[in-house]
Amino acid sequence: MSQFQIALVSGDGIGPEVTEQAMAVLNKIGEQFQHTFLFQNVLAGGCAIDATGKCLPEETLECCKKADSVLLGAVGGPKWDNVPNNQRPEKALLGLREGLGLYANLRPATIHKALAEACPLKPEITADGLDILIVRELTGGIYFGERGYREGKYGKEAYDVEAYSEMEIKRIAKNAFEVAMQRNKKVTSVDKANVLESSRFWRKVVTEVAKQYPQVELNHMYVDNAAMQLVRNPKQFDVIVTSNIFGDILSDEASMITGSIGLLPSASLGETGAGMYEPIHGSAPDIAGKNIANPIAAILSAAMMLKYSFQLDKEAQAIENAVTAVLEQGYRTPDIFSEGMKQVGTKEMGELICHNI
Ligand code: NAD
Questions:
Q1: Fold for domain 1-102+271-357?
Q2: pTM for the whole structure
Q3: Does the domain made of 120-257 have the CATH classification 3.90.1300.10?
Q4: Which one in 12, 117, 155, 173 has a CA-CA gap of 20 to 30 Å to 192?
């Protein structure tokens, strides 16, 4: 019997509603597979500003550091739109990523067969579903590079620098190959090596790392082509590994292909210590408190936690299978509802998934 400490950062808006269902699902897994999940509630985001004046109180970060893993709902909302920029609720996310040393962002884009009609692409492109995992570098590159203003050829200009060290590329590439080993053993590294020096270095280092993973097939693709291939023939991808900025854009593109923001989980991982798991959606203030938010993204985030932080593959699979079963039985929250299906609320969806485990 194993025991896991989970820091629960429910946050704002629909955050508490969806994490409550994720917690219920984890407890059900605990019962069935003889594990104990101990949850500690901590504040971050708007609710933390209201309670303590800070979007990320020190106790929260300390608790997350000590925990085996962090489950986050979402933060932010119109109530805090006018707080100073460096104290906005969303800053809590950056503080958590930095404080926990999370440099790899894993975002699956999955289409469940039962929801194929939600995909905006032609049916034949995603027939039989889709399962891509984007591994995005999260703490380097142009978003964190040197920036400023200077006198240029045409007068005043602004600049941002894209730079990647060998260490940063190596560790994210390793992450991608490791997760590919747990999937279909194919990695596509996305760069712009025909133009950028930093991309040529990226390609060289990724190719080097690939030698340690002879079972994994590696190919390289320019980012403009990758953006096109994602809508033309997304099934060719298994794991995509890429830089911070390219990953930001491609992961949003990939999530749109799946058709619903309420279904997609994500994981942020570091070298050691707690990973952070959260739905990709925000706090959805427009539907908060109405029991209509889709809890599946939060529930699948819990499944990712089991797989990547606790190496409980069987248990993670049990959650994924239960989600698939409930969708196949025709149950839908309003965001994914269509004619002829059975509409349920947040709580009911959580209960149905527990029941199917
Ligand atoms: P959002 O993701 O909260 O909502 C976009 C749309 O999707 C809304 O119509 C919403 O109702 C719907 N939606 C989102 N999640 C859903 C779910 N689980 N079920 C059903 N429908 C769902 O994005 P937004 O409106 O741009 O942002 C709202 C707030 O959330 C802002 O304050 C923003 O800064 C914050 N935000 C937080 C995070 C995070 O915590 N990781 C991420 C993105 C946005």
A1: Isopropylmalate Dehydrogenase (3.40.718)
A2: 0.92
A3: no
A4: 155
